[in-house]
Design goal:
This protein is α/β, with parallel strands linked by helices and 425 residues long. It has 13 helices and 15 strands. It is elongated. This is riboflavin kinase.
Length: 425
Amino acid sequence: MFACTAPAPILVPIRSHAGGCSAGSPGSVPRVRPLRRDLRAGCREIPVHSRSLSVQASASEARTHAERQASFFSSRVQDLRDGITPEIDARLHTIAGSVPGLGPASRVLDAGCGTGALIPHLQALGIQDILAVDTCPAMLAQVEARFGQGDSLGNVPCVRTWPGDVAELPLYQGPFSAVFFNAVFGNLYDQHAALLRATQLIQPGGYISISHPLGRAWLQEFRQREPEVVPHELPDEVALQRLIHTLPLACREYVDQPDMYRALLQVPLRYAFPGGPLRMSGPVISGFGRGSRQLGVPTANVPPEGFPDSLPKGVYFGWAQVDAVPDAPDTDRAVHKMVLNVGERPTFGDADPEVSVEAHIMHGFSEDFYGRSTKLVILGFMRPEISFGGLPELLSQIRRDIGIARVQLDDPELQAFSRDKLFTP
């Protein structure tokens, strides 16, 4: 247990490593255990709801929350610095070292960095390229005072800072080898939105670490006193599976001890998903016609019956082959890369509750192929279905999805599926 030495009201900003608290079990190292098999097996049956993917979310609410965070922590910078006891520092060392494979070539995002308490432990691993993100300017000023102001050249490894909500971090800041949410996850406005952005910023095979060096119970007690500062609890195993259900994430480790909370998530290598690869076939059917008419990205709609209900809606990729007419060019009958959208098209006002399966096949066909048989081998899951603010934003993301799919399908292991037994030679 931890005894807080700060007077009431509590001045210990749990977001950044427990200023003013002392440890009761110094240096203890929690036992790491993998996620329970029964939870892994059932995770696809648990629905998830996120404010970031619904009309309940608003940019103004998010800004208000960020301003509240900045105001609360601006006057507590020294409390944070003073609160890093040797015991807590040892736990931060454990947290930094919990992500496999980090070293001099790694790029790391420290989300909700506070005063930068985790950064020395990342640097001890040889990591030089670190982006520290926080909503509080006073915290970032402390990071810059401790570690210097980052070089303006993006290819020079150093510690850089970025002010704002990590859910709004521009995608060009990536890719990262790992993202750390240390002593901040309960403070986020939208945990699902933050994880979604992290998955978009991480390279396949990279990790997300969610941690708190004082543990889940400590944070829950603090949340009762400061519910506006800490709107969320740290998720238990079941809640964590709900949270990542629609995301391209797998839970690799889970630690929940009185003096340590840590969950290690991974974007699977090559975006592999449970049960994959998935094979589907069926005739091309008519859809809304938006792919070509409004977006300039032609798609082939196929019957959704072959897509398992247990898999999340969203964007997948793989290989496709159309049974073209006999006199079509050989290239029309070849196997091509494709991006697959499975969902309800939430960006459009006439979103249909019926699920559609739309494949963008990366080939310029010589003629329409409605009614022709199409075969799909689905290999990777990139992201969930998202409601965008308009067509330009949607089109930008579609182009990004296509680019990611092209690169992934160049991998020799995934290229081999272009010769899958489903396809006609």
